[in-house]
Specification:
ABM_dom, 4 helices, alpha+beta, monooxygenase activity, single chain, Alpha-Beta Plaits, Dimeric_a/b-barrel
Length: about 100
């Protein structure tokens, strides 16, 4: 599985628009092939930070997601609206829940 985390700092004048864009992007992404989860959250410890948590089946699914024109437009718009560049981290991950927590 591929795990992606992202964050962007919201500006007061664009806060509502950025939250709406984030929610739209997550909902659209969940419909893409290979998307296991895609969620947008407001950070409760830093209310101006919008956080994204994504789970994808494979690197190929992520590449396809990044190639979707709407994904590129989303990132460009977030860059334009934020006072800081968005941050994204991409990890190859293994679900070890059963190993640590017993059978789930």
């Amino acid at each position: 599985m591929i795990l992606i985390t992202g964050q962007v700092i919201m500006t007061p004048e664009h806060r509502e628009r950025m939250i709406a864009l984030g929610a739209e992007h997550s909902a659209r992404s969940r419909g893409e092939a290979g998307c296991l989860a895609h969620h947008c959250h407001v950070d409760v410890e830093h209310p101006d930070r919008l956080v994204f948590v994504e789970e994808w089946e494979s690197v190929d699914a992520v590449r396809a997601h990044f190639a979707v024109p709407a994904s590129g437009a989303f990132v460009a718009e977030m860059r334009r609206l934020s006072s800081e560049p968005p941050v994204i981290r991409i990890y190859a991950a293994e679900d070890i829940t059963a190993t640590l927590m017993g059978s789930a």
